[in-house]
Write a structure and sequence with these properties.
It is built from 14 helices and 13 strands. With 314 residues, it is α/β, with parallel strands linked by helices. It folds into 4 domains: 66 residues, Orthogonal Bundle (Arc Repressor Mutant, subunit A); 32 residues, no CATH class; 90 residues, Response regulator (Rossmann fold); 87 residues, Rossmann fold, CATH 3.40.50. Strands 5-4-6-7 form a 4-stranded parallel beta sheet, sandwiched between helices. Helix 1 crosses helix 3 and helix 2 packs across helix 3. The longest helix is centred in the first third of the chain and has 22 residues. It is elongated, with a radius of gyration of 25 Å.
Length: 314
């Protein structure tokens, strides 16, 4: 049985397994009644997570392609998929032949097909997304945007919660179709869960360009305070995105959960950038000589397009 996993493939590991098994059944290489390797053996062969293989088997069983017999194994069902896909195979075969006759290479045909496939996919409504971020406010904002733009269900979990107890990740992933992280936390998530059973994508968060330009015009050595919902989100959002280029400024990063740095910021900084999650609180703590600028973040539209595309592929 010829299965392989490629890091270059645009589909996640689970989807690669499912798609290759469908092809093997449709081509007749896997015949009705034939048994498949156990999830453990298949995972070892492919060098992937056992749970990923198990989930792929379960989803193919729900489609009617496989049958899972407890205590016995996993088997190919009675070939209804062969009849259902026979005409589709002929259509695709004809299309590839015509494209090759026009001078396109197989690589170009595949690339074009994968690039445009999302335009013909099913509507993502009814799907469910897990949002992973470092503060509740950003989880809520990202979730609302995804719900509004795509009509999907969302649930959220703090990256800190997963770091404290990564064994619970399966609980949070149950019933979900995709994981969405703020881009600054995507690598954090992958360190916690090296081989999640679902694909994880990062979203870019934009801020007001006027604020960024104003910050870049500040005199060198200006003491600037930067604060968000907590110390983790303050450093993640601001250091990696919005204020990373302000190298000539003296910056104090202080979340409300870091009282010593917060007090230092309030004492030393005449200008403070505060996310909308803490703006009112910080404004009440500052004096009349201090200026507090509210900062809002929005999801980049291309990130929404990416989420839509990935949901259609799963």
């Amino acid at each position: 049985m010829k299965l392989s996993i490629s890091k270059e493939n645009p589909f996640g590991v689970k989807e690669q397994i499912k798609r290759q098994l469908r092809v093997l059944v449709a081509s007749g290489e896997l015949v009705p009644g034939q048994s498949l390797p156990s999830a453990k053996d298949m995972a070892t062969f492919l060098n992937v997570n056992r749970n990923t293989v198990s989930q792929a088997y379960k989803e193919l069983a729900s489609e009617g392609l496989l049958e899972i017999v407890v205590g016995s194994g996993t088997y190919v069902t009675e070939g209804q998929m062969l009849e259902q896909t026979k005409e589709l195979k002929e259509v695709l075969g004809d299309s590839v032949e015509k494209a090759e006759a026009l001078g396109f290479s197989l690589e170009q045909i595949c690339d074009f097909f994968l690039t445009h496939l999302s335009q013909y996919g099913t509507n993502p409504k009814g799907r469910s997304v897990l949002v992973v971020e470092c503060n509740e406010g950003s989880i809520e904002d990202i979730s609302k945007t995804i719900q509004k733009e795509l009509g999907v269900e969302t649930a959220g979990v703090l990256i800190q919660t997963l770091e404290e107890n990564p064994a619970k990740i399966s609980h949070y992933l149950e019933g979900k179709d995709l994981i969405v992280c703020g881009f600054n936390h995507l690598e954090d998530f992958r360190r916690i869960v090296p081989e999640p059973s679902l694909e994880a994508v990062g979203v870019l968060l934009n801020t007001d360009l006027r604020i960024m330009n104003e910050m870049m015009q500040l005199p060198p050595g200006t003491h600037v305070g930067i604060t968000c919902a907590n110390q983790r989100s303050t450093e993640s959002w601001y250091k990696n995105t919005f204020l990373s280029r302000g190298t000539t400024l003296t910056k104090i990063y202080a979340g409300p959960d870091n009282p010593s740095e917060l007090q230092k910021m309030l004492e030393e900084c005449d200008l403070i950038y505060a996310s909308k999650y803490v703006y009112e609180r910080i404004r009440q703590l500052t004096g009349p000589h201090q200026r507090v600028i509210e900062v809002e973040f929005t999801i980049d539209p291309t990130s929404i397009d990416l989420i839509r595309e990935r949901l259609r592929m799963h």
